[in-house]
Amino acid sequence: MAKPVPSRPRRTVLYVPGSNARALAKAENLPVDCVILDLEDSVIPEAKAEARVQALGALSSGRFGTKETGVRINAVTTEWWLDDVTAAVRAKPDALLIPKVSSIGDLQIVAQRLVDVSADQSIRVWAMMETPLAMLYAREIAAAAKDAETRLTCFVMGTNDLARETRTKILPRRNAMRLWLMTCIAAARAYGLGILDGVFTDIGDSDGFARECAEARDIGFDGKTVIHPSQIDTCNAAFSLTAEDVAQAHEIIATFQKPENADKAIIMVRGRMVDRLQAEFARRTLALAEATPNRSLPAMETVI
Predict the structure, then answer these.
(1) Which residues pair with 15 in a beta bridge?
(2) Does 5 reside within a domain?
(3) Is residue 1 part of a domain?
(4) pLDDT tens for residues 209-239?
(5) Residues 177 and 88 in one domain
């Protein structure tokens, strides 16, 4: 069984067009956990080179502070991706987001490029799951994480591209693509990856966005990608741990730490059977709560 994914909050992950200087400047102070500087879908072909310089200049300046940062490069089938990777690694984002991943081969191509340009080992790779082949090969793509050279640590759903390529309508509750979402979640968890939900494009439908955030949380996503600042507060709220979550995690760990439970694999907590695997997830919960910005939760004195 895979270990739990790393304890870094990714409740709200904001795409910022690399060609939009105003949006890049505004993103500095927005309360998101991660910013993805986009060189792909939001940038027209004629602006690719300029967007690359502008976005990676902003990243190199350190203006995003402690936020996790990613750069979405262009797909490996395009003429721009090699220059994207070369420039991006100099700016040292936390991750490169690879669009249109449809096979392990796509990740291996990127991995070799990262070796060729001597990319810092701290730079991770995230894979966008947005093609029919990605759905068919989700397990194999996730399993690529076993090869350290791929640097793979996270899946990001590209639900709009997936809908277009499969001719599936995105309706309330996304029943038509629920199977694919759950398949990718299962694959990610089987190999210890994080996973983020796709964007919600109807900016004016705040109720629909809140509903989709709650549904994404309940089926297992770590957080959601967003495209507009108006979506941030709702998304943060949906994916934030509650005081009840944290208190329950404290109680599970404290109960296992009692001398009389030292040799027990399963204990009772408030009438519920709890095993030691759940204790590990409780520790992750506390670490995640501790790492979450602007939290107002109980103190974390007994995380370990």
Answers:
(1) 36
(2) no
(3) no
(4) 999 999 999 999 999 999 999 999 999 999 9
(5) yes
User: 54-89, pLDDT tens digit by residue?
Assistant: 999 999 998 899 899 999 999 999 999 999 999 999
* Predicted local confidence at residue 2, as pLDDT: 52
For residue 289, is pLDDT > 80?
Answer: no
pTM: 0.86
Is residue 299, in this structure, part of any structural domain at all?
A: no
Q: Strand pairing of 68-72 and 34-38?
A: parallel
Domain that holds residue 263: 243-291
Is residue 304, in this structure, part of any structural domain at all? no
Residue 246 in contact with residue 255, Cβ under 8 Å? no
**Same domain (yes/no): 18, 158:** yes
The total number of structural domains that make up the chain? 2
